[in-house]
Write a structure and sequence with these properties.
The complex is a heterodimer of chains A (about 180) and B (about 260).
Chain A: H1 2-23, E1 27-28, E2 35-36, H2 38-66, H3 86-103, H4 109-137, H5 144-153, H6 156-176
Antiparallel strand pairs in A: 1-2
Chain B: H1 3-6, H2 18-21, H3 24-38, H4 44-61, H5 65-70, H6 76-89, H7 107-133, H8 136-147, H9 157-187, H10 197-202, H11 205-228, H12 247-259
The chains are: A mainly alpha (about 180), B mainly alpha (about 260).
Chain lengths: ~180, ~260
Amino acid sequence: MKRTKSLKIYILASLFAALTAASAFIKLPTPWVPLTLQTLLVYLSGLLLGPWGGAMSQILYLLVGLAGLPVFTGGCGPTYVLYPTFGYLVGFIPASFTAGLLAERGGYLLPALGTLICVLVIYVFGVPYLYFSVNYLLGKEMAFLSALKIGFLIPIAGDIFKGGAALGIFYLIRMRMPIPISKR
Amino acid sequence: MKFLQDITLGQYMPQDSFVHRLDPRVKFFILLILMVTLFFIEAPLKFLLMGLIVFLIIRLSKIPTGYVLKGVAPFVWLFLFAACAHFFFTPGRSIRPFPIGFVNVTVEGVVNGTVITLRILLIIVLSSMLTLTTTPLELTTALKMALSPLKRFKVPVNDFAMMMMLTIRFVPILLLEAQRIINAQRSRGINFETGGLIQRAKKLVPILIPLFNLSFLRADELSVAMICRGYATGKERTSFREVRFSTPDFFALAAVMLVLPFFFL
C-alpha cells in the first residue's frame, strides 16, 4: 500500500508538471498584458499536492522545458537559462513547497498565508536572477531598483489576483476530497 | 483559445545523419564543453573558429541552416537589448558624428556589444542543435545518467526519469482534454471572450475543476495499471531503449578535444 501511494504521488507530480506546461499556453485575453495561467498552476500544485509533491512537479516542469519541449513561454531548451526571467521558473520550486507546507495544516487562514508567501517567493528568486543575468551574463549595468520595478512591481498585481483565484479553487476542491489529494 | 494548433511539441527534426546517431550523453557533454568554452573567448579569430565548428555541426546534422536560424527568432529581443545597452552606455572613444546630445556610441561599446551578441547567438544555436537532433526521450535518458550521482543522496533518480517521460506524454493529452472541456462548456452557453476581468476569471472554474478531476482519475488508473504490471518505485530496471557508446561517439569526442586547445592559447 505504501508503494501505491508513493507511485501515485509521482504520477500526480507528473500530471501537474504537464498541467503547468499546458497552462502556459492558455491566455486570458485582458485589455492590458495577457495573463497566462502558469503561476496559477504553480500555486495549485503546492496547495493540492503538498510540499514535496508540489516541489517535485515544478522540478519536472523545469527539467522537461530544459530538455527541449516548448513548455516555457517564449522559448525552450537549455538556452533558457540565459533568459533574465529564468529565475522565476527556479522560484516555482520553493514557492510550491512553501504553499504545500502551510496548506497541509488545514483551516482557511494558513492556506491563504501559504499562497501569499508562494507569490512572494517566486519574486525572491526571480528579481535577483534578473538583476544578475543582466549585469553579468549580458554584461551591462542595471540598478537593482530598476530590476525591482521591472521584475516585481509591474507583474505583482496579476499574480496576487491569480493567487486569490488559486485559493478559491483550492477551497472548492478541498470540499470534495482530502488534501493532499494523493491521500484519497 | 486555439492554442492546440499553435503548439508544436518538441523541436526534434528527424534526419538520417551522423549527429542524430550519436549517443545523447555524448552530445550533452560536448554541448556543455563548448558552451563553457564560449565564455572564455574574446578574440575575433577564436569566434571565427567557434563559428566554423557550429556551422560544421549544422552541416553534419543535415538540418537546413534557415530552420536553425528560425529557432533563434524568439531571442532577437535579447540580442537587441544586449547590443544597444553596450553601444549606447559604454564609456570610451566616440565614433563620429556622435555624441549627439546625450546619445553616444563608442568604439568600446560596439566591440563589447558585438562580442556579447555573438556569444549568445552561438550558445543558442549550439543548444538548438542538441534539441533538434535528440528526441526528448533520449534527452531524458541522458539526464537520468547525468543525475545518477544524486542516488547517494537518496534522490529517486530512476523515478524522476519515469516522471519526466510521463510529463512529456501528458502534455498533449491534457491539452486535448482542456480543449474538449472548453468546447463542451461552450456548447452549454459559456462565452469565454466576454465580460470583465472577474467574469472571465469565474469562467475558468468550469474548465479547471473538470480538468483536475479528470487528472486525478487518470492518476488513480495509471498507478493501479503500473503496479499491476509489476512496477516498483525505487528499484533498478532494465531499459527497452538502450544507449550505447560507439565509434562515431569516440570520433566526435576526439575531434572536440583536439580543437579545444586552440581556444585557450
